[in-house]
Amino acid sequence: MLLHEFKEERWRGSPPNVCIGLMSDVCALISRSELETALGGYLIYGTNDDVLDYIGVWGARKVSRFHQMLRSRGATLDATSGRPPNTRMKVKWVRYLTKPRNDQAPICALP
User: Fold this and answer.
1) Pairing between β-strand 2-7 and β-strand 17-22 as defined by DSSP bridges
2) pLDDT surpasses 90 at 57
3) Which one of 27, 86, 101, 107 is separated from 75 by 20 to 30 angstroms, measured CA to CA?
4) What does the DSSP 8-state code read for residue 102?
5) Torsion angles phi and psi, residue 67, rounded to 5
6) Sign of the four-CA dihedral 75, 76, 82, 87
7) H or E stretch including 69?
8) Backbone angles phi, psi at 43, to 5 degrees
9) Phi and psi torsions of 3, nearest 5°
10) What is the pTM of this model?
């Protein structure tokens, strides 16, 4: 499975590490709800012509756990440095804006 790893320069502050793979390949092994539960969210990138979609995570620790999840499900990973050509972020799904205390209801998630 080919994964693209790069720094997302368009975010404010320190640019996070991002790792994305083709949505069809990743979602064959890990569902979006599993990514949300295990890693706290996911990113969806798409090509400018909307032909290909990619899904992945941000942050060095999440990227490492993402790799572990994929390997544990039988994926052979091949990582390349850099964003796929002609792609842009389409969706950033975050489970919680802040981590709720045990007695608090979760804060609204971002679409």
Assistant:
1) antiparallel
2) yes
3) 86
4) T
5) -60, -45
6) negative
7) helix 60-72
8) -120, 145
9) -115, 145
10) 0.79
